[in-house]
Amino acid sequence: MSEHVDNTPSPIGWPRAILTAAVIAVVGIGVLVFGTNAVMTARGPSRHTLVAIATTMFFVLLFGLAWALRKLQARRLM
After folding, report:
1. What total of structural domains would you count in the chain?
2. Residue 33 within a domain
């Protein structure tokens, strides 16, 4: 006789889902908004250079956050 294995992921509860969403929002805002704002308020290079750096940094961090979330999802941690 073969043993039946259920591979469906167990749903996470509401408290864990709310906590996960809050952590993702805080990290996303902190990294994307405040990180690029820190670059824009830096002294030194011209404003055009700072805008280019901040824009590039924003999109690299956005894709990095999306990649990290996808990896967590693939490991069924969220």
Report:
1. 1
2. yes
The amino acid present at 37, given as its one-letter code, is N
Query: pLDDT truncated to tens, each residue of the chain (78 aa)?
Result: 556 565 666 677 888 888 888 888 898 888 888 888 888 888 888 889 989 988 998 899 889 888 888 887 787 777
The answer to whether position 58 is within a domain reads yes
Region of 44 please: left (phi>0), alpha (psi -120 to 50) or beta.
Answer: left
- What are 12's two structure tokens? 């996470």
The structure's pTM equals: 0.67
Residue in this structure with the two tokens 């999109």, named with its chain if needed = 59
Radius of gyration over every alpha carbon of the chain, rounded to an integer in angstroms? 19
